Amino acid sequence: MSNNISGAEEFATSKDGDDGGLPSSGYPTRPNTSNSSRQQNMEIEALLKRERAPLSIIITSKTAPVATPSKQQLQIALENERGSWSSKLDFILSVVGLAIGLGNVWRFPYLCYKNGGGAFLLPYFMTLILAGIPMFFMELALGQMLTIGGLGVFKIAPIFKGIGYAAAVMSCWMNVYYIVILAWAVFYFFMSMRSDVPWRSCNNSWNTASCVNPYSRKDLLCWDQMVNKSTTKICSLATGNITASELTDPVKEFWERRALQISSGIEDIGNIRYELAGTLLLVWIICYFCIWKGVKWTGKVVYFTALFPYVLLTILLIRGITLPGAFEGIKFYVIPNFSKLTESEVWIDAVTQIFFSYGLGLGTLVALGSYNKFTNNVYKDALIVCSVNSSTSMFAGFVIFSVVGFMAHEQQRPISQVAASGPGLAFLVYPSAVLQLPGASLWSCLFFFMLLLIGLDSQFCTMEGFITAIIDEWPQLLRKRKEIFIAVVCVLSYLVGLSCISQGGMYVFQILDSYAVSGYCLLWLIFFECISISWCYGVDRFYDGIKDMIGYYPMVWWKFCWCITTPFICVGVFFFNIVQFTPIKYLDYNYPWWAHAFGIFTALSSMLYIPAYMIWLWKTTPGDTASKIRTIVRIDEDVKSLREKMQQETTTKQAELYSL
């Protein structure tokens, strides 16, 4: 910082040269010599030097006249201050890092198996073409078009600005709970850094008397016995005879009794798990330093966090397909069962998987797109990233189910009893699988390091979307204090997240997962976002704006999707979810009513912003109904006029900062 200030002082106090310098005030003035082009370049260079120092530091001379920077120079200064991608590859890798997250690895493969194997790809790709790619393209284009974050973009349809606030609230919930998974992964990573993984045996202090390794159960003495007029399998252990259903395994006991130290229910929140508090703090520190310097720094971080997981996935696939039983697992993953397509749950799973895995509705894509140059071909970028995302999901399925097939082979159990989704896959199935691999600790470290990297870039890109939206909304207050603001957000999110790593934290985690960032909230946000552009602002004017950016009109298919298919899919699946709603459970534990009430509150905390803001803005906007519609529902400006208006407002604010 001191170097930037001294540079500004040096330039501000330099004497005018023969080619026309700057007055001692440090402000650029119009050239008085004939070499105006060179003089103008020096003015802009001087202004950019000054921009590297905080805006509050304006070095002036008491005796020299102060000239106001021109509109063009202020605009250049603003772009330099806000930041932009250093290269196109930075942008693409950042969006890839956001879109490719834990859902690609631990949810998509299981949904394929559960919903008919290869047959699931039919509803998946139909949803992708009819809703996923269109919304992905719309959000990136919207951010690039208006060069502002998720709150400011709704100047295009002011009555829908509540969408931006709803997305910001939902991002806060996402930031709190999603990073907890990474804290668990870091804990397992550190616990794997030893000669052997600690969940191999039942001889640890946290194990119970009924613990038996699943790979050793075939050697147990078991028999059938009539109990309460039904046949029950009884097994003999050193501590006595117990039923087969009462047997536990060291992997599950390590997860529940060592990692989580889980309590009996959400009523018993218990103590903070200090080991997990430490790993959570570590992940938040990493996240902070990934985004604290803005997108130019973030764009460099994703070269590692977005690309290296592919190296790890490839290594794990090569090892997986060489295991016995691997191809049986892959067959279960890909062989189609078309009878499943008649079930509504299959189509609902396809929609929610697309929307979650593509990072839609949270304002993050809008923020990442806003750092692009206006003329960037965002259409091509969107198609590239969507192709990479879905290909990665299918690739991860081969990695996971090769290991699942191996587990089923070793345990002599059907694959249907081994396959799992979510935390069950990451912290139960895979840790159990590595027990049979030579060098178990190495494979465990690689897997959990991969989970960390895959989740980390999704986490800090979501954070970047939230930070961008808030700072763009209040630039005078926050932009020059961005690093402090990010630190405050990280600290507050960490403190709230401690509730998820207490002994009862798993129950809180599941409430947030099932309500605060549920499919209900996401479908609600995406529906209103889609109609705000396609129906209220007007899809034709939006298309004109895209043509101004990329030089040609995209195919008319996207108009059809934005106006018809995407809103219809959102509404249909939203109501299907309501009709088929069942209260969540954790294994056999039923949540009390007040826990469900809290979950509903977290969901409504984002969803209600949209109608509430609509009502408030309509009532506070002066004029009759027709004038209100033209002012806040369907504005008159096209994209070019709207950009000019926004730039004028921004330039005015920038000039006010210079006058301070």
UniProtKB/TrEMBL annotation:
One of its GO terms (cellular component) is neuron projection. The keyword Endoplasmic reticulum does not apply. It is a multi-pass membrane protein. Keywords: Disulfide bond, Membrane, Metal-binding, Sodium, Symport, Transmembrane, Transmembrane helix, Transport. SUPFAM superfamilies: SNF-like. Belongs to the sodium:neurotransmitter symporter (SNF) (TC 2.A.22) family. Disulfide bonds join C202-C211. Residues 26-39 have a biased composition (Polar residues). Pfam families: SNF (PF00209). It is found in: Membrane. Na(+) binds at G97, A99, N104, S357, N389, D457, S458. Residues 1-39 are annotated as: Disordered. One of its GO terms (molecular function) is metal ion binding. The chain crosses the membrane at residues 91-109, 121-142, 163-190, 276-295, 307-327, 347-371, 383-408, 428-454, 484-509, 515-539, 560-581, 593-618. This is Transporter. PROSITE patterns: NA_NEUROTRAN_SYMP_1, NA_NEUROTRAN_SYMP_3.
